Amino acid sequence: MSWLPLSFGFPAILWGLLALPVIWWLLRLTPPRPQTEVFPPLRILAQVLRREETPHQSPWWLTLLRLLMAALVILALAEPIFNPRERVETGGQGIAIVMDNGWASAPDWDRRVATAERLIADAAATGGPVLLAFTAEKPNAEIGPFDAEGARNRLRAAKPRPIPTDRPAVYARVAEAMRALPGASVAVLADGLAAPSDEAAFTRLFSGVSAPVVWAVPDRLSMLGLTATENGVDGFRLTAIRPAGDIAPRQVTAGAFDDRGRRIADATLSFAAGETTATGTMQVPFELRNDFSAVAIDGENQAAAVRVLDESAKRRRVGLISQSEADQAQPLLSPLYYIRHALEPFADLVETSNPDLAVSIPDLIAQKPAMIVMADVGTIPHAAHAQLLDWVKKGGTLVRFAGSRLAAAEPDPDLLPVRLRTGERALGGTLSWTEPQPVAEFPPNGPFSDLTPPNEVTVTRQVLAEPSADILERTWASLADGTPLVTGDKRENGTVALFHTTPQATWSNLPISGTFVEMLRRLVQLSRNQGTIAPNAEGRAATLAPYRMIAANGALVPPTPDARPLEIRGTRAPVTIENPPGLYGTEDGVYAHNLLAADSTFAPLSRPQIASQVKELHYALDESRDLKAPLLAAALALMVLDTLAVFWMGGAFSRRRWISPRSGGTVAAVLLSIGLLAHFAEPALAQNVSSDAKPGDVEAIQAVSVTHLAYVITGESSVDSVSKAGLTGLARYITEKTALEPGQPVGVDIAKDELAFYPLIYWPIDPAAPMPSEDAIARIDAYMRNGGTVLFDTRDQYASGIDNGAASPATQRLRDILGNLNVPPLEPVPEDHVLTKAFYIMPEFPGRYSGGPLWVEASLDASNTDKRPVRTGDGVSPIMITSNDFAGAWAIDDGGNFMLPTVPSDPMQRIYALRAGINIVMYMLTGNYKSDQVHVPILLERLGQ
Known about the structure:
It comes from Pseudaminobacter soli (ex Zhang et al. 2022). The chain crosses the membrane at residues 6-27, 60-78, 631-651, 663-681. The chain is an alpha/beta fold. The protein is 29% helix and 18% strand.
């Protein structure tokens, strides 16, 4: 018997509530015990003739109390259950529970276990056996039959696995075991994802089942998975998928982590309505991208949302080809000599000894290089040409160097980025140079845009490109006269590049310069790894030990006891319980074994069509509550109240019993003591607080008693956390190096918080943060006019000017903010400014990035600069602007370790960044005090007198 949300185990006992009227009648009929009073003798004599009276019935409130107590006892004996759980009547002789415990079950594993426990409890009520099988366990795992207690123990010992399910093998074992349990029902607790072999597996499982089938899948599939990552030219690209049934627009954030688990980059992935695939890009310098060891989607606690990275995302395999005979006889004149030495530090080089291009090119492609370098290779045989072009179109990078052979070869528009000119290509003639040509500024559209042109490099000979409308778009480097030095172009997914000079120092001294190494390094970063190869010529598989595994919840953990070495062959190894996803190898090198392949999809699981009756069950925790114990406790409490009421009515608590001439003083003393304690328990501070105090006075006193550095709360949690950690690290460094001991940094809301308490406010500019209101900007303007200093940090040193010289989003946002402020004229910090010597001698002010200037108020009225050691502008600049990400360089975690790496990774750059912070704080607190040194000669002269 059940009335939602209340049910009863023995509803027949509720008929006992009909006895409540009888109990009421008995209680009203039976009078209470007469009350006894002790009177003085005269009082007794005065009432001798008075007839004694006793009440004939109980008071109404006592009757109601006893009726309620009886009702609670009857309800408790009926075993009521609040919010009773869903019960499925299978009617079978036992039950076989088949439960998915793959990676997709990890986020709501507790609800699945609670659902299975309910099925086991229902089976225990009928006394039937229980088969319990999991689809992501070893093939020989025990599946029963168990009794109810044994099934519960097996269920509690199970856990989700970071691997796909193997329904065909497990369902076949369950179907075989059910032959010994005729009439048993089947319960399928699935994760909701379909697999190609599901139809045959379900057919095998449900064949011969006549009892009802229990079917449970999640109400909604919302999991996400990472299927691919690519370290491209413009950033690190991610590809994520979601189930086909999830059609609403969705936006998620993914983070990149280094090998110490520190988050160093973010990307946003947006799914449009109806789309199942989304991509995102982390636009960070390639030095940081090479530090990535794992990428994960925020909020997804399962293994498919994590992707580990190995050297295939960093180091590349590069193939080298040359037709020159000087390779063996004269190494220094070999076309590959400088290329080989330039690439060895950051690439794996492979070469072929066969001079026949028809053989060497296919052999080289078979080793799956990311990039192939051809040093002065002329005409390519037709068969090898087709294979090479196909390799490039699939993502390969072909880099060619000019020479006499290439100059004499027929034009090859497929494997050259530009059409080469016929005719003269060297000195002499109308196209000859009067003097060797230097290298011009690298154009912004190429991979060398961040390099500085080498002043010492000159070119005396080159092959010339045929002028065309798109020659500027394909030029990655050029000479001072405008002729291309390096050109490049896309071929579908691949890239073709050409150095218009030789790779040895015959036509140019470029190969013996440091710029040559950096140019090749950029081209290697352009390339994409093509896969893995067999580790030896015999084709035997390599065996790598497990190093770090991905757990079912997405965390990186040490190898489990079930993990076994992974055999690396030419194809992708499957993910199994013995080879779970993760990193295999050693600290010297690892191999990434990820859960999802690039072509993976999430398809919802459809309920199979079977002849038996299907009862659907929802995954849910058991939220039912047994009310028997609370009701009995309430009845017991009412019994205690009833007993006290009877004692009271019998005179046990009479006033005369407690307040006698001897005991009355005791009660008064107790009351007086309580009053005194209440009086003296008031805070002593209350005596010192004036009646004229106003709200906020205590906070103001605390704010000005210690110097606090403040930062603007932007509303972006990642930015605000770095700002707080950065100012915390700077404050700790200031305490160690100076006499100042700043307090904890304070986040301020410029729209409503009082700003006058803080001498310096750090404002990180984030284009994703909301634009401040006019009132908030007016408050900042007033703060700066009254002597405060705001340090604006756009944190975009490496993003400035990447889009054809246009301002970055952060810089544009800063311009919008400053457009509403009364900003004085600004200039980069001059060499003789107070900031350069406020505490440390600082010629520049780096942060996490270096190279960006620190802008301050211009000293337009500076005078007498010959005799003064610093500029004479009084006061402190109300505004400072940088793009070097100061807080990122200062930020420390709870353990005192620096959170973010510097770019470039230089330990001294962080020291200089902290010193820059000290100089800024000292300048902000003391102004131009060092300019007073101009009076030193006068003081010394007076002391001499």
